[in-house]
Amino acid sequence: MSHLTQVPPETVRKWQEIVNLLAEIMRVPSALIMQVEPPNIKVFVSSESKGNPYEPAETAALNTGLYCETVMKTRQPLLVPDALQDEAWKSNPDIKLGMISYLGVPISWPNGEIFGTICVLDRKKNSYSEIFLRLLLMWRDVLQADLRTLATLDRQLEERDAKIRRLFDADIIGVFIWDLEGRIIEANDAFLRIVGYEREDLISGRVRWTDLTPPEWLDRDVHQWVPEFKRTGHLQSFEKEYFRKDGSRVPVLIGAASFEEGGDQGVSFVLDLTERKRAEAEARESERRYREIQTALAHANRVMTMGQLTASISHEIRQPIGACATNAEAGLRWLSAPSPDLGEVRQAFERISKDARRASEVMNRIRGLVRNAPTDKEWVQINEAIREVITLTRAEAEKNSVSVRMELAEDLPLVQGDRVQLQQVMLNLIMNAIDAMSAVDDGPRELTISTGKDESNAVLVTVRDSGPGVSPENVERLFEPFYTTKAGGMGMGLSICRSIVESHGGMLRLSANVPRGAVFQFTVPGDQDGASGPSAAHEGALSNKSDNDSCQPQCP
């Protein structure tokens, strides 16, 4: 152990104070800590007292009759009051330096190996009291405690080095040892494979981390990571890129730690992220394709649903076009009168303009629902979007004797989303409700569409019907792709609706209505700044009359 563990400078300074204090208390010229280094013994620490002939790092050969040599062999304290009067010590080499008295005790490593001795020497006869021996033994215990600490640290360092070496040799991840000047001192094969270099390149000094790092990353290394490394002694793992030998780039995850506090060398662990980055790109592409398929399915669902609304659409278009024709004929008759009433003519033309705009709006809504366009997020006033869907489904409801009631809350916040997709959800839920109630022979067929806010301030839309309802075991299955209870149904409508709502950050759920029927509710997060669209008062039951019934022409 003695040849492995180095006593650090701070411990040497502490030991220097100990021998200085011993020399002062015992009033002797020399207090020493000796270390054995076969075939020699070395003055490891020497007191800075006056008349001390021993210099630090001075060595003497073993097996020459030294006082300390006897202490180390016997592992017992040794007291020599006067070597000149003792036949056993008359030839002791220390006598040549004038040191005729000696008191020393052995110092051992934790494993029992001899480190050396701690001793005092004097030029005059000195019997050294029992108190001095106890004092020497006490300081010996302090030194041995320091050696135990050093041995523990040494063992921990050995274990750390062994772990690093195992990682280094295992080639599981890249490992390299570097310094702040940019050199790579050592690297394992895994790291060399990552950057595409050979070991000959490393040995020749051609592999430097500063050269491996692209300019945009090197600037960050120099101004961010190096100062942090100097300050903390380690770097949390982060992503960067390295140049390979062939000039290509490799993405890596890297972490680093210093070997010692304040040192300029460190060890880094490097993980090649090429496969992970490729997998992430493939996942993004898969998500993009999934969104494309989902958009195509949603479009197909809208087209199919709109196909079911042929009668409603025809009705909504025929009404304003018919009104235009009627008002045009009325206007011509007013102009043909002996005394044309230009006021009536103007009113007829105004009604024509209004009905033409209405027909155009209906066509625009239909085109918006049918077209296959990319997702377009905008601020949507949900009540307005619902009214447009109700307009398209009104004739279908009338045909199936379904009374429709709207209960739209006032001052709802705007929601951000794709208007067409949100209207598709409403269209599916309303058409499903009408279809379900068409099979009900007893009791009223009532459809209620309401809006409000839930506890999280999200906009809440509720579609409530008085149909046969849904059995509890089928509630979740209704949202599964290709599950349907309709003859000839695709089973995609509710699945698409849930995907649309969830993509808008909301939820779609189903519960039972009382006394019968089903309740579909979905939420969409509202504008947190409180922006809202036009106020929407309680709508009440919808009239079965056309909006144009109140603006029929007055014939002369």
UniProtKB/TrEMBL annotation:
Gene Ontology MF terms: ATP binding; identical protein binding; phosphorelay sensor kinase activity
UniProt-listed Enzyme Commission number(s): 2.7.13.3
Gene3D superfamilies: 1.10.287.130, 3.30.450.40, Histidine kinase-like ATPase, C-terminal domain, PAS domain
Cited InterPro entries: GAF (IPR003018), GAF-like_dom_sf (IPR029016), HATPase_C_sf (IPR036890), HATPase_dom (IPR003594), His_kinase_dom (IPR005467), HisK_dim/P_dom (IPR003661), HisK_dim/P_sf (IPR036097), PAS (IPR000014)
Keyword entries, A-Z: ATP-binding, Kinase, Nucleotide-binding, Phosphoprotein, Transferase, Two-component regulatory system
Disordered as annotated region, ranges: 525-556
Positions of the PAC domain: 236-285
Domain PAS: 160-216
Ranges for domain Histidine kinase: 312-528
Domain of life (superkingdom): Bacteria
Bias (Polar residues) ranges: 543-556
CDD domains: HisKA (cd00082), PAS (cd00130)
Catalytic activity: ATP + protein L-histidine = ADP + protein N-phospho-L-histidine
Name of the protein this chain belongs to: histidine kinase
Provenance organism: Trinickia symbiotica
Taxon lineage: Bacteria, Pseudomonadati, Pseudomonadota, Betaproteobacteria, Burkholderiales
